[in-house]
């Protein structure tokens, strides 16, 4: 089968790989119908996960079930399914608390040895462990390009808002309008917020945020702090989602959040960064952070997407063939696209 493989910094190649086979009783084998390119794939693409060299990338996917182990109950051969970017065992101490994102045996698709050596889904076929927890049948009427967002970008955007405990009538700012930031903006809208303020420097991304109903702030052309204060009667946002994973974005998030407010940190921080802890202390900010519990959120997120309450549709901007993966990664890296779908 063909698969998108990481070859070194800024280099991916579509190569032949052995077809996966069922290994455990609770595995499923799927034919991938579509797989997305995620911002976290860019961390690998930029060379920050050197151990992933040679590995098949990808962790956002929709597929058709080709085979299941004899312990799988919730999906059947022939069904269209979607899944989460990481797997959970369902039986460890973390899973028993429902903290599937802290599963002691968690594996991440397409991350290489540091993610449990689980080959990615930017391929013609994929092996899915613990299928009853990892997969869901794709709701009829939910198109592939939306279904594959549920187990990663939309699940993470939802988590950013849910973990912050935002209340109806409160205000939310989002720093960084990649797919996860935009998903957080739509989740904030769905939570009944009085205002969602979306901050970025890329005009096309601000355009999508506007389409999702946010007040947009171009950080390169205007003073983000001043605009947020203007829009919140001088107080700052109740909740700010930091969806970049950089020192600058975290600093901005802390500055634009009101006293006693919450910074929800879902941007992937791969390197240590310096923050003004005095500012956090003086304002009494609450910081929530970490990977999203996408397994636990998946049914709720799918229900909200099917009902149209969460609408990440405008985030999917490109659809390409799997063979075009090298061009797709380049374009995404240049921020010329938002979510790109690859179809094998
Ligand atoms: Zn991802
Ligand atoms: Zn577990």
Oligomer: single chain
- The beta-strand count equals 17
Q: What are the distinct ligands in this entry?
A: zinc ion
Sheet with the most strands, sense and barrel status: 7 strands, mixed
| Secondary-structure element pattern, one letter each | EEEHEEEHEEHEHHEHEHEHEHEHEHEHE
Q: Terminal Cα separation, in Å?
A: 10 Å
Mean pLDDT: 96
Radius of gyration: 19 Å
The helix fraction, in percent, is 25-40%
Q: Based on helices, strands and strand pairing, what is the structural class?
A: alpha/beta
Low-confidence stretches: none
Count of DSSP-assigned helices: 12
Relative strand content: 25-35%
Shape from CA axes?
globular
Question: What characteristics describe this protein?
Answer:
344 residues, alpha/beta, seven-stranded mixed sheet, six-stranded parallel sheet, 17 strands, binds zinc ion
Strand and helix map with partners:
Blueprint: E1 2-8, E2 11-16, E3 28-37, H1 39-45, E4 60-68, E5 80-83, E6 86-87, H2 93-96, E7 107-108, E8 125-128, H3 131-134, E9 135-137, H4 144-147, H5 153-164, E10 171-175, H6 179-190, E11 195-200, H7 203-211, E12 215-218, H8 224-231, E13 237-242, H9 247-256, E14 257-265, H10 277-283, E15 286-289, H11 294-306, E16 316-321, H12 325-333, E17 339-343
Helix pairs in contact: 5-6, 5-11
Can you give a write-up of this model?
The protein has 344 residues and is an alpha/beta fold. The protein has helices at residues 39-45, 93-96, 131-134, 144-147, 153-164, 179-190, 203-211, 224-231, 247-256, 277-283, 294-306, 325-333; strands spanning 2-8, 11-16, 28-37, 60-68, 80-83, 86-87, 107-108, 125-128, 135-137, 171-175, 195-200, 215-218, 237-242, 257-265, 286-289, 316-321, 339-343. Strands 3, 4, 5, 8, 9, 16 and 17 form a seven-stranded mixed β-sheet that branches. Strand 10 (171-175), helix 6 and strand 11 (195-200) form a beta-alpha-beta unit. It is globular. It starts with a strand and ends with a strand. 52% of the residues are buried. It binds zinc ion (2 copies). One zinc ion is lined by residues 38, 40, 59, 85, 152.
């Amino acid at each position: 089968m063909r698969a998108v493989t990481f070859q070194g910094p800024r280099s991916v190649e579509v190569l032949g790989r052995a077809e996966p086979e069922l290994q455990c009783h609770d595995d499923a084998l799927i034919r991938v119908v579509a797989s997305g390119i995620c911002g976290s794939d860019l961390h690998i693409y930029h060379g920050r996960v050197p151990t992933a060299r040679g590995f098949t990338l990808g962790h956002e996917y929709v597929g058709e079930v080709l085979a299941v182990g004899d312990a799988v109950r919730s999906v059947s051969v022939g069904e269209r399914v979607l899944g989460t970017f990481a797997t959970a065992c369902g039986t460890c101490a973390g899973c028993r608390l429902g903290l599937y994102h802290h599963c002691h045996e968690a594996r991440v698709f397409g991350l290489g040895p540091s993610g449990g050596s689980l080959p990615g889904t930017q391929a013609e076929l994929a092996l899915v462990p613990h299928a009853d927890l990892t997969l869901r049948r794709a709701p009829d009427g939910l198109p592939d390009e939306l279904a594959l967002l549920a187990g990663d970008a939309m699940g993470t955007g939802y988590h950013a808002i849910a973990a912050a405990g935002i209340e109806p009538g409160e205000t939310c700012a989002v720093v960084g309008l990649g797919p996860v930031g935009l998903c957080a903006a739509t989740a904030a809208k769905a939570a009944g917020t009085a205002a969602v303020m979306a901050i970025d420097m890329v005009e096309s991304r601000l355009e999508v945020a506007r389409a999702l109903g946010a007040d947009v702030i171009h950080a390169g052309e205007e003073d983000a702090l001043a605009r947020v204060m203007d829009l919140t009667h001088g107080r700052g946002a109740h909740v700010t989602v930091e969806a970049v994973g950089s020192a600058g974005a975290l600093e901005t998030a802390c500055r634009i959040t009101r006293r006693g407010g919450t910074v929800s940190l879902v941007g992937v921080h791969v390197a240590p960064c310096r923050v003004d802890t005095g500012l956090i202390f003086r304002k009494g900010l609450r910081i929530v952070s970490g990977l999203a519990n996408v397994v636990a959120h998946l049914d709720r997120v799918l229900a909200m997407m099917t009902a149209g309450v969460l609408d990440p549709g405008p985030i999917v901007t490109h659809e390409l063939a799997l063979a075009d993966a090298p061009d797709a990664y380049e374009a995404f890296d240049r921020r010329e696209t938002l979510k790109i779908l690859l179809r094998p």
